[in-house]
Amino acid sequence: MDGATLTGVELGDGLPVVFLHAGVCDHRMWHDQMRLAADNGWHAIAYDRRGYGDAVSADEPFSHLDDLEAVLDAFDIHAAIFVGCSMGGGLAVDFALKNPGRVIGLVLIGTSITGAPWTATAEESAIEMAEEDAWERGDLDLLNKVQAHEWLDGPRAQSGRVGGSTRELFLDMNAKALAKPALTREEPRPDAWSRVDAVTAPTMLIVGDEDFTALIERHEHLSETMPNSFAAVLEGVAHIPSIERPDLINRMLDEFLDALAGEDLEPDDDE
User: Which residues form the AB hydrolase-1 domain (predicted)?
Assistant: First the structure.
């Protein structure tokens, strides 16, 4: 890709499972899930998008969709299962709408959706205001801590609810993203909110009950609208369950992959 070098990890052999990280993380948020997939006979791939992790990119016109397609082409992958959290989930949905014949299945965790509405409770608005204040002051260390409260602990939870190595990993991943120069020329992606009923691939929807209210409501809407989906709400978990409760996500992912393995795993190009 002109002006960009994307970095990541691959593990295992078999049919591909592509992991797409959240906007406050990088590919490391999927370490446990990649190991599970590889150990069970899948080819696990995760990469840092432009602006995250160890990716290097100039401030040039770009599209995350084009980048994803380039990653797949680099591995000679026609179709894959996509596991996405937050912004990574939104990218997976956009890819599925554009390329339905290349999507075997989807796992969407606290997913963003291009064009989806956003509302916040008074409590959630207060932490959003703290985030905006830290951003305007240019205090990246404070911003990182506020975002850890927002996304790791949950906006209505006690700050520091999730600690130890999990918090250290979040803070390191997000600090890398915050320290990178802004990318101002991303090409907008078309609205997906009004078209999610066209995503027909088998889809597992997951959200934590400590996540933003808007994301829990979105999860409910998607579960009612996406024709081949099933949904689960995780108790006591916020926005990044792959590192907060990897045991839960691993078990659910394992069951989903096992179910797909029993089906015809080559989607119809004419869909």
Answer: 17-250
Residue type, 156: R
Kindly report, residue by residue over 7-56, the tens digit of the pLDDT: 999 999 999 999 999 999 999 999 999 999 999 999 999 999 999 999 99
Residue 26 phi/psi, 5° resolution? -145, -165
| Both tokens assigned to 233 | 């709400």
Cα–Cα–Cα angle for 72, 75, 83, rounded to 5 degrees: 50
Cα distance between residue 174 and residue 147, in whole Å: 8
Q: What is the pTM of this model?
A: 0.96
Calculated CA dihedral for residues 142, 144, 145, 151, nearest 10 degrees? 140
Query: For the structural domain made of 4-118+183-261, what CATH number should be given?
Result: 3.40.50.1820
Contact 203, 105 (CB under 8 A): yes
